[in-house]
Specification:
15-stranded antiparallel sheet, 3 helices, 10% helix
Length: 249
């Protein structure tokens, strides 16, 4: 029966999310099916801070650059300058692990009553010392998520679920529901519940976070989120903070 566990996880998570879906992407952990549009850029510059029982890290800054190749495809690059340390060790600095991704939105809400995309992402180390210190995963990684979104008036509902492959570690499932509410023309409120499980589903972590997007001037947003992990493992976030600016052009 173990072979049914991954399929069961996907079905249960997507069924739950259909009732309590949101708009993902920065400043949240999960993403949504949205793409920038043909020939358009979406660039987010942020300072995410993460503290666990074992490590403390912060990007200064983190770059999340996305380009629309047509109306349904997004090309992405993520990476940044990282400072971090293990508990009891000195601070280190260098370049964070990089990520390359291609998002394909294969369903549009206007025609299919729901947005849906797949977003394969390849991660790789650019500073080997960080991997040796346990501040980032060693080797390469590959994340293959499915994202679904639906809008009901001012409420935007979203879900992401996928499997994360690691070159030097066991893979894991990750995903969860997100909800966004358009409070005013310039202010959006966000909340997320993200579940991380290993292959056997015997070890898991639930991360809860909430945030906002605030329009400052045309094409510029302030992004903020804060959260923590519910489980108190050594890699569970004691504190997660995200602050940055989003630019579209």
């Amino acid at each position: 029966m173990d072979t049914w566990k991954p399929l069961t996880f996907w079905l249960v998570l997507l069924a739950f999310s259909a009732k309590s879906f949101g708009e993902g992407g920065p400043p949240l952990i999960g993403d949504d099916p949205g793409t920038p549009g043909n020939g358009r850029w979406e660039i987010n510059l942020s300072y995410p801070y993460l503290q666990t029982d074992r490590t403390t890290t912060m990007d200064v800054p983190y770059i999340d650059a996305n380009y629309g190749l047509g109306d349904h495809v997004e090309l992405s690059y993520l990476g940044g300058l990282l400072i971090g340390k293990e508990r009891g060790q000195s601070w280190q600095s260098g370049y964070d692990a990089s990520l390359l991704g291609v998002k394909w939105r294969f369903l549009d809400e206007e025609k299919s009553h729901v947005d849906a995309s797949i977003y394969p992402q390849l991660g790789f180390n650019t500073t080997s010392a960080f991997a040796k210190a346990g501040l980032v995963e060693s080797g390469t990684s590959f994340f293959l998520p499915l994202e679904i979104a639906k809008t009901y008036g001012k409420v935007e509902l979203d879900a992401e679920v996928g499997y994360q492959f690691y070159q030097h570690d066991r893979g894991q499932w990750a995903g969860g529901p997100i909800i966004g509410y358009q409070l005013t023309d310039k202010i959006e409120l966000l909340a997320e519940a993200r579940l991380v499980c290993d292959q056997s589903f015997r070890s898991n972590d639930l991360i809860l976070d909430a945030g906002t997007r605030i329009g400052l001037i045309e094409h510029v947003q302030f992004l903020f989120a804060a959260g923590r992990g519910v489980r108190n493992g050594e890699d569970s976030p004691h504190l997660y903070l995200y602050a940055g600016l989003g630019f579209t052009f």
